[in-house]
Amino acid sequence: MLTRIIQHELRNLSRDRTLWIVTGLLAVIVGYGVFNGASWVRFQKQTINEVTADEAQKFAAIRNNIVKFDDGSAQPAPNADPRDPAFAGRNIGQRYAIMPPAPLAALSIGQSDLYPYYFRVTTRSKQAFINAAEIENPNNLLAGRFDLAFVIVYLYPLLILVLSYNLLSAEKEGGQLAMVGAQPVSLRTIVLGKVALRACVILALSIGFSLLGILLSNIGFFSGSSDSSEATLRLGMWVVVVTAYGAFWFAVAVAINALGRSSATNAVVLSGMWLLFVLVVPSLVNLTATTFYPVPSRVELINAIRDASNEATAEGSNLLSKYYEDHPELIAEAKNQDPTGFAFRFYATQEKVDRSIEPVLRRFDEQLTRQQTLVNGARLLSPAIVTQEALNDIAGTSVSRYRYFLKQVDGFHASWKAFFVPKVFRQVKLNLSDYNRMPEFVWQEEAIGTVANRVFVGVFGLLVPALLVGALGIFAIRRYPISN
Amino acid sequence: MIAVIARKEFTEMLRDGRFRVAAAIVFTLLLVSLLMGWTHFRSVNAQHETAQRTTREQWLNQGNKGPHSAAHYGVYAFKPKMPLSLVDQGVDNYTGVAVWLEAHKQNDLAYRPAQDSTAVARFGELTAATVLQILLPLLIVLLTFASFAGEREQGTLRQVVSLGVKKRDLAFGKALGTAGALMLLLVPATIIGVAALAFASDDGAWLASASRMFLIGASYLLYFTIFIAVSLTVSSLVRSSRVALVALLAFWIVNSLIAPRAAADAAKRVYPTPSAFEFTAAMESDVGKGINGHNQSNPQRQELLRQTLAKYNVGRVEDLPFNFDGIALQAAEEHGYTVFDEHYGEMWEGFERQNKLQQVASIVAPALAIRSLSMGLAGSDFTQHRDFANAAESHRRSMIKLMNEDITRNSRSGDTAYVAGRNLWETLPRFEYRAPGVVRVLANQMWSIGGLLGWVVMGVCAMLIAATRMKVD
Predict the structure, then answer these.
(1) What is the dihedral of CA B26, B29, B33, B35, to 10 degrees?
(2) Residue A225: pLDDT band by 50, 70, 90 thresholds?
(3) Distance (Å, whole) CA A256 – CA A469
(4) B337 and B105 in contact (C-beta within 8 Å)?
(5) Do B120 and A398 touch (CB under 8 A)?
(6) Cβ-based contacts of B297 with chain A (< 8 Å)
(7) Between these two residues, B298 and B218, which has the higher pLDDT value?
(8) Of A43, A356, B244, B414, which residue is the least packed, with the fewest Cβ within 10 Å?
(9) Which residue, among A169, A154, A133, has the nearest Cα to A47 in the 3D structure?
């Protein structure tokens, strides 16, 4: 019986212009969304290539210069000798710490246009390089990007609602429902058949057009054997999220239809629900988070750092003896050198500054984490937030991945300093083999298990309301007034 | 006759339960957003004012040191929030709040508030502007989609027209009735908004924003007129109220949701901007090509030294009646200024051209016009940000000039032990920033104003033509 209903619905829908308009629209917006996402990924990859090439070029030039300085055929500029570990670590021996875009980054631009994806690491304090930002017109950041995630979160529910807002009410108003209802078939089966067909059509079209778009945009989705299994896993998660989100909206459509009102009323109520879940609730969640857990002032942070560095510079030689207390391994190395040298004072000051601002930075991070936790919990109030965060996680453009990157940068910064600082205190000159042994940043991708965990909590947060609402709807169908 | 029709429409709307619920929700959201905007404005401004005082004290209390060290220490400038940003935050969250004014480098403003927010913030902030630009038009659509189409279906349209009522009067009456119903919730909200503005800044500077307030209010009224006109046009043209609703909702979605993003993408494609890496690399390379004030072996510096020695007719740099280092440093800075002006100017011009294109695109979607105009008048758009950045940069250049002139005048070449004290630091005036006048803002928004007015004219004409030709059954 169900299959017969589905076949009949297919015939009905394909005669109705609505389905073809929806198909056409979906093709255009999905294609455009994937195209935009792919352009952004291409821009990032191109920048990363330029950055890596620049680093390699600079290191090659330094190596050439060292050879020339060593054999005396050229003289280094004053205070600019690449063999001086203080100068090398601070100025020219810079390494870039780069976070490459994840395999499916084209699916959701997410937060990746707001946060930097590479840093120029030096021996200076982290504050010197951590505030980099990509160049982008703030108007465009405000408007947001037209990527596939936008299509899925905002427009895909609308298309679902367009196809199913008059699921039952159209036939009721036309009188056909009374005739069909007189047959030995339950209304529940009819509804399930209609929903099943619409769901299959919309899902097939959405997922199909997206995959087509990804393949056509040629962003190297299937590049690399170890990557492609992870990429396929991410794609699988993406399909699950899109299906769960669709299931939620179909459940809502069925529940509203089951109330037995007219098509026009259904349309208005469903638009209201869309507005509520996709526009209003996210803004309210954001408002609550920023009201109850406001991020402490960056502006105060700036002045705290300045005060700390003032104190540190004023302390001068006292600072240096404190530094030696904390780093006894360096006393032996510095024994014969002038302890008041610029380099020594520089590192001692840096360490004091870093230590004084650490509590301020920690409080800042704690507030931010509390805000993120609140939002993580509150996101279950709106399936739109859940879906957006899940898509960001799958595409690797979420804040979590960015924080993971920051932790790795911290570790690299520490190892970078650990390479140069002892050499500064020992006043040892760098040679070519040192330049070959300089620490390099190796990007470690987040374990796919961690990502999958986050995504599946989201999917759960979509399926539970979907099942609840759907069950309520199916239950209410019992009392559905088939004819007026 | 129009007044009678308007009054009937107004009463009918007020009795409609759906209108009451929807209007109550919109009004509550407006109040909440105004309150939140007010709180946010006060706290951010207080922070920035305190920080501006602190950085000035840090500058004055930096002790005795060489003027060039002081220039390296520099000062910070903190961007103040404009009073009307409590209505429209604009791009304030996506632009930096503080800039370090130091020697040798023009820094861009850092610390964008959005980077400290969560991903939910990208869904949009709840401000009075978003409620007025996105939710209120939806309310208008709900009120008016069945104005003509619904009456036609019920049969009352034929009766009214058979009485001899001019269809044009009917259209005007319905429009005015809807406007009246909207005023019920807009007037109290406006009064509360003006009160919030008055209590927002303690020094009564809000009066200076009076013209901006008035113009913002007028722009929003024009925007609502567009929606009323378009709604009534569609309602009179289509066959059934259901089709009218779907068509108007589609217009609303394309206008409010899709157009801003599509316009942003189009603008980026037509006027692309460089990546941060290319920008920094190009700037550093150009600066490196010029005179270097520190490096004695820099050929341009040596040339300048030769010229200066010749000009003062002395043989050695020590015989000059001033410190040549100061001259060299200032020359290096001025070379830097031309490079920075060129590169930053090009980047910011790129942004302005993108924004202009988005204004022009309002021919297709009026939401782009009101967005741009509202941000501009509230003082939270990119042009305002750029104005502040330029003011901060002028302050930086004054600071550097003062330091270098002091080195030149009060010390001699090779004198590395020269220190200055608070007397010199105090010669740098406190950094005061004044926002540009409303005329400058309007001049920058000509395309938005044109788009808005164009839509109003076209909308009202279309409404009249459609109403006059509408079929009565």
Answers:
(1) 110
(2) very low
(3) 10
(4) no
(5) no
(6) 77-78
(7) B218
(8) B414
(9) A133
Q: Which A residues 129-188 touch B at CB under 8 Å?
A: 131-146, 150, 154-155, 158, 162
Q: How many Å apart are CA A458 and CA A452, to the nearest integer?
A: 10
CA nearest to A43, candidates A146, A94, A117: A117
Q: Pick from B357, B94, B268, B356: which is nearest to A39 by CA?
A: B268
Which amino acid makes up residue A310?
A: N
Q: How many other C-beta atoms are found inside a 10 Å radius of the C-beta of residue B389?
A: 20
| Cβ neighbours of residue B258 closer than 8 Å, sequence gap 6 or more | A146, A155
| Structure confidence by residue, pLDDT tens digits, A162-200 | 899 988 888 888 888 888 888 888 888 889 999 999 999
- Collapse the DSSP code of B221 into the 3-class scheme (helix H, G, I; strand E, B; otherwise coil) and give the result: helix
| Helix (H) / strand (E) containing A98 | strand A95-98
Alpha-helix residue ranges (DSSP H) falling in B164-209: 167-200
- In one-letter notation, the amino acid at residue A3 is T
Does the beta-carbon distance from B249 to A282 stay under 8 Å?
A: no
Instruction: Let me know: does A455 contact A394? Beta carbons within 8 Å.
Output: yes
Burial group, residue B254, by CB count within 10 angstroms (0-12, 13-18, 19+): middle
Instruction: Compute the distance between CA of residue A152 and CA of residue A454 in angstroms, rounded to an integer.
Output: 19
Query: What is the distance between the terminal CA atoms of chain B, rounded to a whole angstrom?
Result: 23
A91 in contact with chain B, both atoms CB, cutoff 8 A: no
Tell me the three state secondary structure of residue B322.
coil
Residue-wise pLDDT for B266-315, tens only, equals 999 999 999 999 999 999 899 988 888 777 778 888 888 888 888 888 88
State pTM to two decimals: 0.91
User: Which residues in chain B touch residue A92, judged by CB atoms under 8 angstroms apart?
Assistant: none
Mean pLDDT of B352-356: 96
Bridge partner list, B78: B98
Around Cβ B114, how many Cβ atoms within 10 Å? 20
pLDDT at B136 over 90: yes
Contacts B381 to A, Cβ<8 Å: 139
> How far is Cα A393 from Cα A399, in angstroms, rounded to an integer?
9
A49 touching chain B per CB within 8 A: no
Mutation site for A-interface testing, chosen from B118, B142, B285, B444 by largest number of A Cβ within 10 Å: B118
Name the helix (H) or strand (E) containing B102: strand B98-102
Say yes or no for a CB contact (<8 Å) between B126 and A264. no
* Cα–Cα distance measured from residue B219 to residue B442, given in angstroms and rounded to the nearest whole number: 12
Which residue, among A470, A39, A466, has the nearest Cα to A240 in the 3D structure? A466
d(CA A456, CA A390): 8
Calpha distance A295→A335 (Å, rounded): 46
Residue of A120, A89, A314, A364 lying closest to B73 (CA atoms): A314
Whole-angstrom distance, CA of residue A169 vs CA of residue A263: 5
Checking ipTM against 0.90, whether it exceeds it is yes
Chain B positions in Cβ-Cβ contact with residue A372 (cut-off 8 Å): 118
- Show residues of chain B in contact with A375, CB under 8 Å: 118-120
> Using one digit for the tens of pLDDT, what is the confidence trace for B391-427?
999 999 999 999 999 999 988 887 778 888 899 999 9
Set of chain B residues whose Cβ sits within 8 Å of the Cβ of A290: 117
Give the position of tokens 């090659």.
A60
Token pair of B139, please? 């309310």
